[in-house]
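User: quick one, fold this
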Amino acid sequence: MIQLDGIMVSDPRLESLSEKISAGERLSREDGMVLEETGDLHCVCMLADSVRRRLHGKRTGYAVNVHINYTNICVSGCGFCAFGRAPGSDGTYVLSRDEAVERVPDGVDEIHLVGGVNPDLSLDYFVELLRALKAAFPAATLKALTAIEIHALAKREGLEVEELLRILRDAGLGMLPGGGAEIFDERIRRRICPVKATGEEWLDVHRVAHKLGIPSNTTMLYGHVEKPEHRVDHLLRLRELQDEAEGSAGVIAHIPLPYLPGGTDLGETAGAPNGSLDLRQTALARLMLDNIPHIKAYWRALGIRMAQAALTAGADDLDGTVGREEVMHEAGSDAPRSLAPQYFESIIRGAGLEPYRRDSFHRPVKGDTR
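Assistant:
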């Protein structure tokens, strides 16, 4: 047993890795595999927590936001998804712009707007939807449309991604969410989401968005059929994406997402992640993504207790109040549909940390100076 800066290390491979982390050096692919394979998960989490505290101290963010799923019609047919419905199926819907506006409560700082790849929705629909939301809630950031939705819409409209993003930006789009990344390895994508855009196409949409001054978030879906090397590769490609964005808008936060098997086709061959994997992926993200400022513990996917635990494994944010989100609910999440700001403050303080209400860019909201 070795002690390094108060951290007990039982795996000798972590000794040199710990020294690199303490010195602020970038970790390699091989380092990532050590973090994935070591049995000393406690040390991995403590190392990630040391980086989190170096970057953010005890400050831990949350947003007052709302999630709107504008349609559940989707032609992607992903094996891990319980939300999407094929065109013509029972229970399908498309929200009108007025219905979308009605779903947003007063006082939100962020509107998270995503749905399925619906072949019947035109660019005009999205422009009108964004304009209506921005007019009704001018102070809220519209974090809207995943790279998958952007890529599919550009193809339908015969537009270059850059031209499409310019139009959407002018209509009120302020940020891209991170959904749709899943796992970038194409062999895995052929198994879990063979119809949707490739990993490289997902990355290209974010590259173009950053070039246009539109920041974004990123995600990784883990715990299904992927292996540790696929997860490490995914994070390295996100790190490269952020390196390319130097000097312009880039990635604000990364969100590790556990696969939830409820109601999914993939659930027959892949089980749900366990708490150890959840904590390891939070820690791995914080340690490998040295150029992405924030790591979120998304409580709707992790559950409240695991999200709180992730705050001691590298995460510095709990996402937000959410409200009305359907994707995780359909996949079997047993977390509440929404949480009040006071509850977030209690969760964060319960982890020995200091809460602050933030906007989409992790700046304190006016009036909250913490």
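User: anything notable?
Assistant: Residues 325-335 have pLDDT under 50 and may be disordered.
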